[in-house]
Amino acid sequence: MKIRWPFKKLSYQHWLGVNLSELSPSAVIYSEGEISAAISFSAEEGIAALTDWLKANATDGMPAVLILDDKDYELLLTEAPNVPDAELSAAMEFRIADLLPQDISETAIQAIRLPEDAYRGRMSMAHVIAASNKTIEHWVGWAKELKLNLSLITVPELCLLNLLALLEVEQGIGLLELGPKKGCLRLYKEGALYLTRQVEVGLDALELVTANDNEDELEVEELEIESSEIVSASAEELDLELSVDLEADADRAAENENDTEIMIDDYVSFAGKEKVNEQQLQNLILDVQRSLDYYESQLGMGQITRLWLMSSDENLVDLVEMITPRLSARIEQPNIGAMLQEMNFKLGSGSEGLNSSAIAIGGAAAHVGG
């Protein structure tokens, strides 16, 4: 079966975008400027929950776009031979054969040439999407069992490009997606993907701690001090010297009972709102800034001044404020639902958690402009 890849536009009244991410599987039903339904699930709920939702909400024969999980494909950047675009994918096979975990004959390939202005026009480069035939066949069979009309299999990088097109974002922009264990930075400009880099810092490593969590920890410590004092007071065999020491300790505890400082050098507070692992925060900022610098100096594409933090629907406003002064780009956590409404898109009553469903939205809108 020949699998459609991006940029082969089709026109239907309804379109289903399905993000097969293991961390945050999601689905969106899009129809003529309206997102009538959107849903996302946790990693624990997984693809099984997504499957059940599709059985209940997707009609038989609904055109569907499947978006592969990160582990299901390779995205490679390599020099492109001087051949017509129609022959590019075939020509790239020999260049990437040694970089794949499976034989090239068992791999579906799609190459997308970077615009001519990349690398200051010194060389022609292309992104190559490579997925094993077994992976493709598995998801084709899954869609068939759900009675979906599978029209396209694609990847998150291109779905986010579709989302930017919906929101009419044309200037250079970076999308920083942070998961629990790692992240990914993708840089776009004027309808093209220029650069994608893995970020080795995730939300777990940042160890974000809210002010309320700090207060709870302090209350537990104070309770432990009070309990030890009660036990000490009831022990008649304690000598006078130990009693004096305990009283001194109690005095010191009373003096510091309102002190909210966490005595760990790796943590810093920001505006009294949240604490974060400072070393990991610095690692994240360095990874991102290096990619921004590479985009500007090596690709010759000018400065990225806008950076979106894409991390489901968790409120990371404090993290945004921590990072902003340390990067050359202005970072923000977008509200995808509000932005779509500003573009006169209608959101149905079943549309919730649109930040979590951002990639699925881009998949569902793959046909727009066709």
Describe what this molecule looks like in 3D.
The protein is an alpha/beta fold. The chain has a domain at 210-265. It is built from eleven helices and 17 strands. It has helices at 46-57, 88-96, 133-145, 156-166, 203-206, 211-234, 240-255, 278-297, 317-323, 336-342, 358-364; strands spanning 15-19, 26-31, 34-40, 63-67, 74-79, 107-113, 125-132, 149-154, 173-178, 183-189, 192-199, 209-210, 267-270, 274-277, 306-310, 330-332, 346-351. The strands form four sheets. A six-stranded mixed sheet has the order 8-4-1-2-3-17, sandwiched between helices. A five-stranded mixed sheet has the order 11-10-9-15-16, sandwiched between helices. Strands 5-7-6 form a three-stranded antiparallel sheet. Strand 10 (183-189) and strand 11 (192-199) form a beta hairpin. The longest helix is centred in the middle third of the chain and has 24 residues, at 211-234. It is globular and about 50 Å long. The relative contact order is 0.18. The model is unreliable at 1-11, 214-223, 230-244 and 256-272 (pLDDT under 50).
What does this entry show, briefly?
The chain is α/β, with parallel strands linked by helices. It has eleven helices and 17 strands. The protein has a domain at 210-265.
Instruction: Tell me the Rg in angstroms.
Output: 26 Å
Q: What's the shape?
A: globular
Total count of helical runs of at least 4 residues: 11
Q: How much strand?
A: 25-35%
What's the number of extended β-strand segments?
17
Helical proportion, percent range: 25-40%
The class by helix and strand makeup works out as: alpha/beta
User: What's the rounded overall pLDDT mean?
Assistant: 82
Distance between the termini: 23 Å
Strand-and-helix sequence, N→C?
Answer: EEEHEEHEEHEHEEEHEHHEEHEHEHEH
Q: What is the strand arrangement across the widest sheet?
A: 8-4-1-2-3-17
Summarize the biggest pleated sheet: 6 strands, mixed
> Which stretches are low in confidence, meaning pLDDT under 50 for 5 or more residues running?
1-11, 214-223, 230-244, 256-272
